[in-house]
Specification:
Shape: globular
Radius of gyration: 19 Å
Distance between the termini: 49 Å
Number of helices: 10
Strand order of the largest sheet: 2-1-3-4
Structural class: alpha/beta
CATH architecture of the largest domain: 3-Layer(aba) Sandwich
Mean pLDDT: 96
CATH superfamily of the largest domain: Nitrogenase molybdenum iron protein domain
């Protein structure tokens, strides 16, 4: 089959390239930026939340890859009206990357060399997962901030929270966000009583680009907590970056 792939998920676009499928990639979002050189000539079809459906239709994809957290449900439903294969992804923990790799391998497995590249990704991920476990690590309550005005954090059933749990960092609030929707990324008033028990405040580099200029403001939320910038791509992206993220997480926990 002559696959024509559109990826509307930045981290999965990187995985598509890592699996050797760049020649089949006909569309991406403006946030699909890695690997930059490989994607330079791939047409953009808007953002993850504001997909230019008309332009995507003209590119005639046979497969569109979407994500429960990244893309709007109504957009996905519209795509189903003209795209033969819509691949819905939803990793909710770092180990779910095994399932994600298999999803793409099952869909595009006829491509030469793909099976070997998928196995290499599986092997590296398995190695890093085995090296990154909570046993023997001190429990620490952390506030992971992804936005300000309003402050936004992550529920415990999100990929980010479960990634941090690999080093026994427990995100607060201790809430489940459900399978999809805004509850997965709760907002803060800033006066919640549990903020007094925070050990670290982690300021993510994405989707909001926090800098050291926000340290004092973040520290005011949780007096006494350590405030630090963290690489949001390494802690929240799926695909090939997940293994690097686990290495990075161990370094953070040791610091």
């Amino acid at each position: 089959m002559n696959f024509r792939i559109a990826s509307l998920v930045p981290s999965v676009t990187e995985l598509v390239v890592a699996l050797g499928l760049r020649p089949r990639l006909v569309a991406r979002t403006g946030f699909c930026v890695h690997p930059a050189q490989a994607l330079r000539d791939v047409p953009k079809v808007g953002g993850t939340k504001d997909v230019n459906v008309a332009r995507l239709r003209r590119l005639a994809p046979t497969h569109v890859i979407v994500n429960v957290d990244e893309n709007r449900f109504e957009t996905v439903e519209e795509l189903r009206t003209f795209v033969p294969h819509v691949i819905v992804t939803h990793p909710c923990a770092p180990e779910d990357n095994h399932v994600l790799i298999d999803q793409l391998a099952d869909a595009f497995g006829s491509e030469e060399g793909l099976a070997a590249r998928a196995q290499a990704l599986h092997d590296r991920l398995a190695h890093e997962l085995a090296a990154t476990k909570p046993a023997g690590r001190p429990v620490q309550r952390v506030l992971y901030l992804i936005w300000r005005e309003p402050w936004m954090t992550v529920a415990r059933d999100t990929y980010i929270s479960r990634m941090l749990a690999r080093v026994n960092w427990q995100t607060v609030p201790a809430e489940e966000g459900g399978p999809r929707g805004a509850a997965r990324y709760p907002t803060l008033r800033g006066d919640e009583p549990w903020l007094a028990g925070i050990g670290r405040v982690l300021l993510s580099s994405e989707p909001y680009r926090f800098t050291e200029a926000h340290f004092a403001e973040a520290a005011a939320l949780a007096p006494g907590a350590r405030v630090q910038l963290v690489d949001g791509e390494l802690l929240s992206w799926y695909g090939p970056r997940a293994a690097d993220g686990l290495c990075y997480l161990r370094e953070l926990a040791a610091s």
